[in-house]
Amino acid sequence: MMQYPSKLVEEAVEAFAQLPGVGRKTALRYVLHLLRQDEATVKKFGNVFSRLREELKYCKTCFNISDHETCSICSTTKRDHGIVCVVEDVRDVMAIENTHQYIGVYHVLGGIISPMDGIGPNDLQIDSLVQRVAAGNVHEIIMALSTTMEGDTTNFFIYKKLKEFNIPVSTIARGISIGDELEYADEITLGRSIVNRIPYEKTFSSRGN
After folding, report:
1. What is the CATH number of domain 58-206?
2. Could you tell me whether strands 80-87 and 140-143 are parallel, antiparallel, or unpaired per DSSP bridges?
């Protein structure tokens, strides 16, 4: 095990090493880089993350992250609030927004159904989605979840929940390869997949159901 000249350095390395994809060697480089900065820079760095945790909000409508109670997408009148795109998390919102092809709003589930990880429907923002649809202002739902087994399971669960409302439920076109996550799709492919979305029912035959 790596030996550190200071307990404080070791604790800082441990903190950075908890980040995804960051090993101890990389974490140590980050710590040593910060030590070369002046005190004001390091304090600013720490304060940014403290404020992030303390002040960041989740939109009360779509559950996207926001600086305010309602995010900028939900608060604008320039979007079609009758089209709701259902995504796993904020990374997918950012990916779709970068295509500049979508004019509706979003609903962020906060994950997907994954029994292996102990994530069930009640752990996600599914009931709140049903409530949005039940309010009567939504005329289309677009399912834009990752094309994985867990994503398909979540799609089908939500589809069954929304079936009684008799509104179109579509899914992004399979320009996104099976097993892919949205955040890794290029903007052109993702944009076309949103524009060329298909009725969700048509995906049943492709799954052999």
Report:
1. 3.40.1360.10
2. parallel
